[in-house]
Design brief:
Structural class: alpha/beta
Strand order of the largest sheet: 10-11-7-8-13-9-12
Largest sheet: 7 strands, mixed
Distance between the termini: 64 Å
Strand content: 15-25%
Helix content: 40-55%
């Protein structure tokens, strides 16, 4: 990699981290760590990450995370320097950082939390790590650095019988990730012994197809290791992996594992490169290694195998799965994979929701925002763009295309990095505005996927006004986030921000004047004062979880939103004077349409007992996602108390009920 390119990336990264730290009132190491957390969550590499710094003799930690499946514990240590000055991150420094992390894990196991005040984020971290050590199946430790590493490979070890993997995210890897244009680093899988296969000749130069049979245990292990990263090129597969085992699949795995190949349709996968073992005639006879593996159809089969093995202790030694593997030229992945996903599904008809950047919704948002000038607010008269990064690395690519330093400075002046926002950011802004903070708190990937389902079910009209209002939501969200930082929101700031914005939107009945925020590119003093008053009230609910929940898990529950929505708080007089007379078109901004109006009335017709029954049924059958069960419980509670269910939640609840009916629910 050219030193000049990496040096430029390093300067931009440090400048961005410094600006974030100054705006949020934190230190650069924390701002850098949170930034990398967001990248890792969006890529599906980590989930449920929380920043929490603790240092003592022999140990150092900057954060932790518990994987969505609850089977992996992640610990993070940060090495950040405002002036790297060409200093390399040595192998010895890497090993020392990992040693400090494992010392922290050991001390958590031995009761470190007993010596820490419960009021601090570190207490939550120690308690979570201590509990996780009795439940997880593996540990990953990460070193995050803005220096270039000289030795970034550390062989796996174990901790009290748990396998430990080591991940170094240095400057070069962060740059690679930021400019790759893909969702995350390619998955490379080796098979020893090679998978027997039959390769079909193809007249098309950009792809080839191979048929193989993969052991069920190996496929389950791959999902355990990579999770939804295996499914990221197809949102339908991603959403199918809901942490539950399909009942039919489960019965076959437990009672007739040898018949699984006959009963199951198998999986459809893609790869950017396949390394074959060849016979004497040169024809492929086995698959030795697959680069860029993705399951584009069969996500439920893949996840169900994993959960049947890990939770039901099903013996998969006699289970095999048919796999159709298509090798696709990397430059054609975005074009061909969605079609493979759509046409390969033979179990039932689906409407394809393209998880890639080429979805028409994202193309339209990019097209409009590129030519949309935001009003000047600094008195210079210089208008700027809000840069929508439809695909990873677009901003960096555009800077590079400017070539000369002068042109790059001009580009950055017209497209300031603080105004850059991604697909995941957009979903976070809109879902917070539309009172779905518990969905936002599920993490970037899950929130984005759920947002895209709503976009696909009722596409909004993406025009200039739509994009202006989405950007206004971004301005509002950032303002709430800044205010939350002043209240020492700590590790849960992003969740507190989403909940505060949602409660503000709910209390004002979506009448905050987004058009005015767009024109001013900032919120009014009355709105800022209202947020400053509301934020600590929301914090009190989130930081005092019910039923012994961890605060991060509590925020994912619809019951948490129910509690926040009932906090005594009224719109201040000054803000009330600024509100619109009529609410904004809620449906269109939600990724819905006018047809979604009336969902509250439709929900109200269904008895509360039925919503409670859906929740209970899904618990007993391990169907639906946890947030869907919680939403059913939330709706039942609102109806039982004779309270109206907000339109957005009502629309989503009807979708949950319909899915439950399809999966076999019926009133007892």
């Amino acid at each position: 990699m050219p030193e000049l390119v990496l040096s430029e990336y390093s300067r931009d990264l440090i400048a961005d981290v410094q600006a974030t730290a100054d705006a949020e009132g934190t230190n650069p190491a924390e701002a850098f760590t949170r930034r990398v957390f967001e990248d890792l969550e969006q890529a599906g590499i980590a989930s449920n990450t929380f920043f929490a710094y603790h240092s003592a003799r022999g140990h150092l930690v900057h954060g932790y995370g518990i994987g969505e499946s609850g089977e992996c514990l992640d610990l993070f240590v940060t090495d950040f320097h405002l002036d790297p000055s060409g200093a390399k991150l040595t192998k010895g420094q890497v090993e020392a950082g990992f040693k400090r992390l494992l010392t922290f894990v050991r001390r958590c196991r031995d009761g470190l939390r007993q010596h820490i005040d419960e009021a601090f984020d570190v207490y939550d971290m120690c308690a979570a790590v201590e509990k996780a050590l009795t439940e997880v199946r593996r540990i990953r430790v990460f070193l995050l650095s803005n220096r270039v590493g000289t030795g970034t490979t550390v062989p796996p070890t174990d901790f009290d019988g748990l396998p430990v993997a080591y991940e170094v995210w240095d400057l070069a890897r962060l740059h690679r990730h930021a400019t790759s244009g893909s969702i995350s680093e390619p998955i490379v899988v080796s098979f020893d012994p090679p998978l027997p296969c039959v390769s079909a000749p193809s007249s098309e130069p950009d792809h080839s197809v191979t048929m193989a049979v993969i052991p069920g245990q190996r496929l389950a292990e791959l999902y355990g290791e990579y999770g939804t990263r295996l499914l990221e090129l197809n949102v339908r597969s991603f959403l199918q992996a809901r942490g539950s085992v399909n009942r039919g699949i489960r019965e076959t795995l437990l009672n007739a594992p040898g018949r699984f190949l006959a009963y199951n349709n198998g999986i459809t996968a893609t790869a950017s490169q396949v390394d074959f073992v060849r016979g004497p005639d040169g024809a492929p006879t086995g698959i030795a290694q697959v680069h860029g593996l993705q399951v584009v159809n069969g996500g439920q089969t893949t996840a169900s195998l994993h959960y049947a093995s890990s939770r039901d202790k099903a013996d998969l030694s006699h289970v095999t799965v048919q796999m159709k593997l298509t090798q696709v030229s990397p430059e054609r992945l975005a074009e061909i994979v969605p079609m493979i996903s759509e046409y390969s599904n033979t179990q039932n008809r689906v409407t394809l929701v393209d998880f890639s950047s080429n979805h028409e919704y994202h193309v339209a948002v990019q097209r409009i925002t590129r030519s949309l000038w935001a009003p000047a607010t600094d008195g210079s008269g210089q208008e700027t763009h809000w840069f929508y990064e439809r695909a990873r690395g677009q901003y960096t690519d555009e800077v590079a295309k400017a070539r000369t330093p002068a042109r790059q400075r001009t580009f950055k002046k017209l497209n300031p990095s603080k105004n850059k926002f991604t697909k995941a950011d957009l979903a976070k802004y809109v879902n917070s505005w539309n009172c779905l903070p518990f969905q936002v708190s599920q993490g970037s990937q899950k929130n984005f996927a759920a947002f895209m389902v709503r976009v696909d079910e009722a596409p909004p009209r993406v025009d200039v006004q739509y994009c202006q209002r989405v950007i206004a939501m971004a301005v509002l969200f950032k303002a709430v986030d800044r205010i939350a930082a002043t209240h020492q929101a700590g590790s849960y700031k992003s969740m507190i921000t989403s909940y505060t914005m949602a409660r503000l939107s709910l209390e004002t009945s979506h009448r905050i004047d987004l058009d005015s925020i767009w024109r001013e590119q900032q919120i009014s003093s009355a709105l800022e004062a209202a947020i400053d008053d509301l934020c600590p009230r929301v914090m009190n609910i989130l930081m005092d979880p019910l039923e012994g929940n961890h605060a991060g898990e509590w925020a994912k529950k619809a019951a948490c939103w129910d509690a926040v929505s009932r906090v005594p708080w009224a719109v201040p007089y000054d803000l009330a004077q600024e509100l619109r007379e009529q609410p904004l078109n809620e449906g269109a901004l939600a990724g819905g349409s006018e047809s979604s109006a009336g969902a509250s009335e439709e929900v109200a017709i269904i008895p509360a007992d039925e919503w409670y029954a859906i929740e209970q049924w899904s618990k007993e059958t391990h169907t639906l996602e946890p947030w869907q069960r919680q939403l059913a419980q939330y709706v039942g509670r609102r109806l039982e108390l004779d309270q109206e269910v907000p339109e957005v939640q009502a629309s989503q609840a009807l979708h949950v009920r319909n899915e439950a009916l399809i999966l076999g629910f019926s009133m007892p």
